[in-house]
Write a structure and sequence with these properties.
By secondary structure, this protein is an alpha+beta fold. The chain folds into 2 domains: 1-37; 40-201, Porin (Beta Barrel), CATH 2.40.160.110. The chain is 21% helix and 44% strand.
Length: 203
């Protein structure tokens, strides 16, 4: 009877060891997946002081009846060049509807055409940016694609310092389909951004 109890204890201990090992493997695999996730594709608010990310650029105020974008320092880095938007710009929005609108800015800088397009969606409570695009710093220009990001409640502005990095290592499916080559790398920085879409719905 004693031998049976010892054997049972050994069996239980063996099962526990196996469960612990499996749990460790699962956690390790999960961590590995997280570590491999390409952070450069993620649009994120930066909490560091702007001086740590070289926030040069010019103060920008781009407004339409639908969208307001203000920033104390703006630039786009692409094709080895830096663009600040410090020139006469054409600014417009797709009037859209209560769930969709855009901010579309076009200008010429360093003898090349530049564009910044932002696409917004709303669900009646919150708004977000679904995608951002810029031109690639060449003439003629072509699109560089950036991921979207979460916004705020309708009527509330997104504030902070925002840095977006393009989908350079994992090209957008649309881009790959029509271009057959890797998407160019790009970076956008908005220092002290104040971004409010769907402003026409809350005025």
């Amino acid at each position: 009877m004693f031998k049976l109890k010892v054997g049972s204890i050994h069996a239980i201990l063996l099962v526990l060891v196996v469960l612990v090992v499996l749990a460790s493997i699962t956690v390790f695999a999960s961590d590995a997946i997280e570590e491999k996730r390409p952070l450069e594709f993620v649009s994120s608010l930066i909490t560091k002081p702007c001086t740590q990310i070289n926030c040069k650029g010019y103060r920008i105020v781009w407004e339409t009846p639908q969208v307001s974008l203000k920033t104390n320092g703006f630039y786009i880095k692409v094709n080895g060049k830096t663009f600040t938007g410090n020139s006469q710009s054409t600014i417009r929005s797709d009037p859209g509807n209560p769930t969709y609108t855009t901010l579309e800015v076009e200008w010429k800088e360093k003898n090349v055409p530049m564009r910044l397009y932002m696409y917004f969606s709303a669900d009646g409570t919150n708004w977000k940016v679904t995608e951002v695009r810029t031109y690639n710093g060449k003439n003629p220009g072509d699109w560089v694609i950036y991921n979207g990001f979460e916004g705020r409640r309708l009527g509330q502005s997104l504030t902070g310092t925002l840095r977006l990095v393009s989908q350079s290592q994992q090209p957008n499916k649309w881009y790959s389909k029509f271009n057959r080559r890797p998407a160019p790398e790009g970076e956008i920085v908005f220092k002290d951004i104040n971004l409010l879409p769907f402003r026409n719905l809350v005025q």
